[in-house]
Amino acid sequence: MRFQNKWLRFLVLLPIPLIVAGINYVVDPSALYHDNTEAMARSMAAGNKTWFAHSNVNEREVKRHLIEAMPREVDCIAVGPSLIMGVRSDTVGTQSFYNLSESGADFYDILAQFALLDLHEITYHRVIFCVDSYFFDEKLYRTLTRSQGLKPYAQYMIDTLEQKDPIRPHGHANSWKEPVKSLLSPSYFQASIAALKKEGGHSLIGARWGIVNENYEGIYYMPDGSIVYAVEAQNRTGDYVTKDAENYNIEYQFSKGGHIDPYSKEIFEKLIQYLLKKNISIELFLCPVAPSLWERINSDDYPSIPELEMFAHEMAQEYNLRITGTYNPYCLRMSDEDFYDARHVRHDLLTKYFDFRPYK
Question: pTM to 2 decimals?
Fold first, then answer.
């Protein structure tokens, strides 16, 4: 009887891991099992506006494949986190432009992109660099795992900048361990359920990407790699921004009591020197935060913010770099209405407050 009870419990519980694995595989909130990134990048490079189910796209892989598919010579590129995603070809004054920004792009992400550009022998003449805490906060870039697969490329670039013999990465560094572990992962299951609740079953279980038609209202990539936010996000009001600023995790995002990392500053300066030696023009962009968020972080508790702005201006002065923007929205007379949320300036206002066009 005891043996039979054990088997009965086993049979009763067996469907649970199967259900967890099935939902994790089908919903796949981090696109571990459904990789459409190369097809999306090639669609963009072919001139298509390309939509995606937001929870299911690996932005780093999309931009890696976009670098592979883009022309061998372009006039201008933009790098950095999502704060610069709205910079487009018409914003920078040339159709020969690619926006390589990624959500939360950090120290490793950005260095990996410069390595990929070099390894694919792509010539570019201008770089617009969004200077943000993700690159300069060691606590952030040492703990985030989003760039894990591209870290060998980042190391290649670091070795190049430090004049060591870089080891050329062979293929891509994705590990089989994470997909296997995530299949039965409770946390990945929670993320799957959250994605289903947020975006609905059709957007995640049905088609995961496609070419935008005239009635599409979701988020999508422009052919140049920039992002157009969903209509719902575009319709947010200043009240939404104010509430988002009140709930923003400033202690983590701006490292309360922390300072910018000296090693990051050193590598950034070496990157500037490296690019200038190749006769590449460098432009720095400091993206302001919403006024309601500025009210929370404008204090001695967050010294990294003024430190980073000062460092950017020091680099601009030392190397004669063009610089636009400031972290302080009041310097630009901005209001919460000028933002989608606590961090992101409305894309249609970028040219009102900042100048990305080349000197005449």
Answer: 0.88
